[in-house]
Every structure is written in structure tokens, then in C-alpha cells.
């Protein structure tokens, strides 16, 4: 006998400090972790970032490259427009450059949520200029740092700025972001209202402005722990402060520039080298579509930068191209920073959200070191 169930739902008796959701990290540094968030984290995210930084209103319509089950899109393409009385456009198909262009023309969104990989792919779509993007008042980028040349190329071609920012699953909210009318490509912008930022060295001491340090953030939306992972929780959640694992530099104007993940940094000749800086140099070459850089041992076991490159369709993956890319980087970077090796690939290891999994490349380096192969140029 089947019991009769009521078709009416009653409101749960909850408080602001009750557990609301588990959001899982993308796994860019390994196994995904479940960040446990409270009920009050979501409205704070909307007030601090959506309304006070993005200025979202009932007149906005949002469109997102990532799907709603990613925390990034959950906020920008669901919570934000609904909280402001706006609207959102959803589509079930996989996000491709052509699909995003078509969706923009069809739905005429005012805000596009995207990621650097998709922005670059849209710029390189052969007939991309044929689409009308005039409805957009801003584009958002997160997940990985947006290279300078990609941001500038987008603004010049489509007449709309990209607000690159930094957030994480552990804060559910973006806490660093560029602003309309004050975009500085190559940076993650300035702190979002309600959040405090500090950069610290290996001892935990705050570094001087202009020096690189690991970013820690304090704000109202920080998760309380990782689900069933006490050890990782204790090393990440430091009282009021969250240890992000990202290396940053703050300039004299208060803009923060991304240098790379703590584990991604290379120490070459005793000096830290940011993979982001080397990748940016590679991406400024007209034949390069994507690039990832990781530390690699030379014949003496010393770490040097190695680049993994995806060329645009007209590029030729040969030794002449590798030499051209190394020389291109030599002109832009200090001698110890340019990539000693160039390896051409058709794809890079990435998470479902498009982040490069550099730890996978480093694992290859460890294997290469054990087999004794490879020699620096």
C-alpha cells in the first residue's frame, strides 16, 4: 500500500548558521574537496559582489559558459539575476565558441560569464566577427588568470571589457575583481567590499607591497571546513583567514597580479619563476593557441621551465617553430625564465571547469627524471 504524500512543502526551520550546501572544488591540484557552506554565505555573495561590484539590476540578463552545477555559474547565472529581479538564459548543449556566439545573438544578455580558455577560443573562431555582441555591458572571467593579450584583443574586437577576478569554492564569492571603467588587464583587480586580503611569506609574515606572497583572504562567505577531510581543513582554514594557495603581488595602486599556484611555482637558480608569466609570453606569439608551463629537471637534475604548447591551425609543430617560440620568450623574459624545452600537443590536462592541471605535467617531469631523458637547450 502506497502512503499518500502531501503535495505541499513546508519551510524548513533553519538559521543563518545552519549548513546549506557542499560545493566541490574542481580538482586542479588533485582530488576535489567538498567545501561546506552555511545559509548566510549565499546572500552575502549576492550583496558583496553582485550588487556592489557588478551593479546587477532587474534590467540584466545573464548567460554563462559553465553550467549551473559549477559554483561560479551558480552565483553569476542563477543567484545574482534572481536576487536583483533580472533574468538568465540557459541552454542544454555543450558550450562551444559557436554556441556561445549564437546564444548571445539569440538571448541578448547583458552579462556573459566565461573563462579564459573559452574567451581565447571565441577570439580564434574564424567567423567570430560576424556575430553581434552589442547587448553585452560586461564579461566576467575567472577560473584562471586572463592573459593580457587575450583581454585586450577581446575589448578591441567586441567593444566590451572583461572583468577578470578571483574567487574560489571555499569562499563561494569572488573576492578580487576588476571594475567597470577601471580594468587593468594582467591583474585580478582589487578586493571586493567585505573581504580583506593579505600576502604572506613562508613563515606567515606579511610581505611588503610589491613583493610576492601567498594570498590569504578573510570574509563573510568562507566555508567552515572540507567535508570528511580534517587534515586539509586544518591547513587551509586558519581561524578567520583562508589560505588560498595562490601566489600574488600587490602593486602601488592596490591591484593584485596572479603569479601561480603555490605548488606550480618553479625555483630556477634560487629565484621563483611564475608559470603564468612564461605562459603569457608564449601566448603573445601569433601562432600559439594555448600554453602551459611546468618545472622540469635538466641533465643535472636542476629545475628549468618547460612549455607545452597547442598551436593555432596554421602553425607548424616542428623544431623551427620551437626555436622561434624560445627566441620570442627570450626577448620578453629574463634569461633564467624562458622555456628550455617546447613540446607541442593537441590538448592539455584540464579540469571540467577549464583549469590547467599543471600537477599532471609535473608528474610527467618526475617520470622523465626517473628515466633520465631530456636535456636543456
Strand sequence of the main sheet, in spatial order? 4-3-5-6-7-8-9
Q: Mind telling me the CATH class of the largest domain?
A: Alpha Beta
* Count of domains: 2
Sum up the overall morphology in one term: globular
> Portion of residues in helices?
25-40%
Q: The CATH topology of the largest domain is what?
A: Rossmann fold
Enumerate the spans where pLDDT stays under 50 for 5 or more consecutive residues. 370-376
**Separation, N- and C-terminal Cα atoms:** 77 Å
The CATH architecture of the largest domain comes to: 3-Layer(aba) Sandwich
Radius of gyration: 22 Å
Walk me through what this model shows.
The chain is α/β, with parallel strands linked by helices and 377 residues long. It has 2 domains: 19-261, Rossmann fold; 265-371, GMP Synthetase, Chain A, domain 3 (2-Layer Sandwich), CATH 3.30.300. Helix content is 26%, strand content 26%. The protein is built from 9 helices and 20 strands. It has helices spanning 41-51, 71-84, 97-107, 116-123, 148-158, 230-236, 275-283, 319-330, 358-371, and strands at 19-24, 34-38, 61-64, 87-88, 111-114, 138-141, 162-167, 174-177, 190-191, 196-200, 213-218, 225-226, 237-238, 241-250, 256-261, 266-268, 271-273, 288-297, 303-311, 341-344. A 7-stranded mixed beta sheet has the order 4-3-5-6-7-8-9, with helices on both faces. Strands 10, 11, 13, 14 and 15 form a 5-stranded antiparallel beta sheet that branches. A 3-stranded antiparallel beta sheet has the order 1-2-12. Helix 5 (148-158) links the parallel strand 6 (138-141) and strand 7. Mean pLDDT is 89; it is low at 370-376.
